[in-house]
């Protein structure tokens, strides 16, 4: 009897160990994938593709300016705990390599813009004469042969932007992006590429949910493509001579290439790069000469310079555009799709005769 009891105890302990391992394994498998996105627009795309299978943190939140962002110690902690980091690339997040190194991040980095054909700045440094009108015909036939995905999916998703980052963006930090324009998300065709890259990146890090990531991406891409087709028709109906606007900085080049709109930036590539008095005078002269009908401020920068140009030229202030950041929840540009719809409506309304 003495020899039997220990055997039974050992069997019971072994069974308990198996059960505990199974419970712990299930809990670990059910834990959402920890993902960090560099800024709010990218964060929304990641949220759409990742759904409930991820736990998302966005470093530069709504209305935040990623050009002059100053990371905090809490950002380093969030990055250290993450398994995936999603970045724009194209030298947009110039502050991120230092943060990544300081945090000890050892996870997977996904570059959302991989595969995008970068737009080159016509005159990097001044940034004030980036005309797109010569490259566009009125029929706006911009092919997307490489990105045609016929997916008929509905995608309902809650968008909770829980970013409580009120970071200071200190003056004097000039962030040079090289010759490539990093604002590639301002093309919905590029947004399709972003969504695909995000889906594949999440799938590689979390194979158990790979199919779910790809299915969400398919549904989201269908929405992006539908909106893109609609906007092409909208802007094609506006006369080419009126498709000219002034914006705060050079962030809308990809939008201009897609829809045949000439954007005249009051500042250069970065919101930190203040133009000289001579450059401002040249912009004012160009607005008068080309009869530019409207000027727009941006949600991430001061409106003073654009308002000055409007006063001195008689151009109307068309409203606020969302360039490098989404709005806070409840405002017009709280998601990537809503941002695009809002910007397009504001532009089209201001450019109508």
Automatic annotation (TrEMBL):
InterPro entries linked to this entry: AdhesinB (IPR006129), Bact_metal-bind_prot9 (IPR050492), Lipoprotein_PsaA-like (IPR006128), ZnuA-like (IPR006127)
GO terms (molecular function) for this protein are: metal ion binding
The cellular location(s) given in this protein's UniProt record come to: Cell envelope
Question: Looking at the keywords, is Nucleus present?
Answer: no
A Gene Ontology biological process term: cell adhesion
What residue stretch is flagged as signal peptide? Answer: 1-29
Keyword annotations from UniProtKB, A to Z: Metal-binding, Signal, Transport
Composition bias, Basic and acidic residues: 123-169
Pfam families membership: ZnuA
Recorded superkingdom? Bacteria
- One Gene Ontology CC term in the entry: cell envelope
Stretches for region Disordered: 115-183
Q: Does the keyword Magnesium apply?
A: no
Q: Main subcellular localization, coarse class?
A: other
Member of which family? Belongs to the bacterial solute-binding protein 9 family.
Q: Which PANTHER family match?
A: HIGH-AFFINITY ZINC UPTAKE SYSTEM PROTEIN ZNUA-RELATED, METAL-BINDING PROTEIN HI_0362-RELATED
Query: Can you name this protein?
Result: Metal ABC transporter substrate-binding protein
Report the source organism: Achromobacter spanius
């Amino acid at each position: 009897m003495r020899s039997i009891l220990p055997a039974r105890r050992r069997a019971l302990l072994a069974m308990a160990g198996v059960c505990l391992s199974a419970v712990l394994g299930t809990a670990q498998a059910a834990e959402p994938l920890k993902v960090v996105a560099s800024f709010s627009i990218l964060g929304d795309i990641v949220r759409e593709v990742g759904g409930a299978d991820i736990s998302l943190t966005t470093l530069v939140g709504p209305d935040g300016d990623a050009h002059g962002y100053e990371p905090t110690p809490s950002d380093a902690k969030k990055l250290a705990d993450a398994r995936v980091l999603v970045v724009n690339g194209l030298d947009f997040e110039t502050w991120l390599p230092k943060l990544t190194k300081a945090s000890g991040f050892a996870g997977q980095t996904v570059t959302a813009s991989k595969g995008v054909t970068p737009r080159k700045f016509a005159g990097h440094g001044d940034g004030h004469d980036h005309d797109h009108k010569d490259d566009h015909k009125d029929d706006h036939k911009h092919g997307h042969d490489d990105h045609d995905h016929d997916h008929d999916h509905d995608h309902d998703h809650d968008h909770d932007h829980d970013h409580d980052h009120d970071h200071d963006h200190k003056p004097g930090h000039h962030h040079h992006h090289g010759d490539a324009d990093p604002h590639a998300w301002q093309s919905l065709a590029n947004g399709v590429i972003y969504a695909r890259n995000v889906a594949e990146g999440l799938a590689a890090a979390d194979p158990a949910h790979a199919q779910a990531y790809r299915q969400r991406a398919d549904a989201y891409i269908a929405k992006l493509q539908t909106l893109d087709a609609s906007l092409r028709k909208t802007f094609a109906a506006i006369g080419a001579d009126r498709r000219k606007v002034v914006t705060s900085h050079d962030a809308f080049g990809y939008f201009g290439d897609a829809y045949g709109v000439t954007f005249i930036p009051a500042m250069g590539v970065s919101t930190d790069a203040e133009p000289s008095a001579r450059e401002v005078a040249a912009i004012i002269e160009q607005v008068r000469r080309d009869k530019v009908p409207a000027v727009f401020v941006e949600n991430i920068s001061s409106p003073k310079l654009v308002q000055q140009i409007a006063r001195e030229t008689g151009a109307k202030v068309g409203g606020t555009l969302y360039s490098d950041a989404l709005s806070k929840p409840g405002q017009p540009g709280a998601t990537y799709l809503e941002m695009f719809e809002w910007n397009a409506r504001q532009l089209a309304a201001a450019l109508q005769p």
